[in-house]
Amino acid sequence: GAARAGRSWRQKLSFLPLLLRLIAIALVVTALARPQKGLEQVRDSNEGIAIEMVVDRSGSMEQQMVFDGQRMNRLEVVKKVFAQFVLGNGEKLKGRPNDLIGLVSVAHYPESTCPLTLAHGTLPRFIETVQLPRTRDEDGTAIGDAIALAAAHSEQAEDEMKRQSPDRADSYKPKRKVTILLTDGEQTRGKRTPPAGDALAKDWDSKIYLSRV
Predict the structure, then answer these.
(1) What is the pLDDT of residues 156-207, one digit of tens each?
(2) Neighbours of 87 (CB within 10 A)
(3) What span, in angstroms and rounded, lies between the C-alpha atoms of 37 and 51?
(4) What is the tally of helices (H) and strands (E) in the chain?
(5) 2-13 and 143-155 helices cross at what angle (nearest 10)?
(6) What is the tens place of the pLDDT at every residue in 44-67?
(7) Contact assessment for residue 144 and residue 197, using Cβ atoms and an 8 Å cutoff
(8) What is the DSSP letter of 137?
(9) Are 86 and 101 contacting, i.e. CB atoms less than 8 angstroms apart?
(10) Distance (Å, rounded) from C-alpha 61 to C-alpha 64?
(11) Is the dihedral of CA 180, 183, 188, 189 positive or negative?
């Protein structure tokens, strides 16, 4: 379940900064979805991964930290790392040009911030719309519901391709469906528990990765 997966990733990656953890997840996802022979890398523009990024925007994400030599809150750090994960940073992260990327933000309840898309140039604008809660009633962390919503979007990846790019829809097939959860806390809100959300994701053949900020 999600709890087991979360503990496993925390144990293995908790000592790493967020950016390095995402690099590690990116490598794992790529290795699982695109087997390689020796050092040869094969990229098929008609095959990729459907990746739903779930960003925690709860009040605790206002806590300050240092990233790239600058002091900023955790949500600002996640926004920067999200952009680097999607578009690349010229170093370890090469970007995800062949992958469908979508964005779900979550506080008291999850929201579909951006549908799965190959038009990655639009994603930085969407991530900038994600803001900390404005009221106490808006605050909280509905992790289970967010996982379930992200998995539901991944399940509709082929339909989303038909809607956005009908000329490519018949040839483009996601090889794997993945949800990456970026959070600094535990479940405090929501109808579904994280294990319940994880079980639903498994029913739809979507794998969950957790990265703590």
Answers:
(1) 887 777 777 677 656 667 778 899 999 988 899 999 999 999 999 999 888 8
(2) 18
(3) 24
(4) 7, 7
(5) 100
(6) 445 678 999 999 999 999 999 888
(7) yes
(8) G
(9) yes
(10) 8
(11) negative
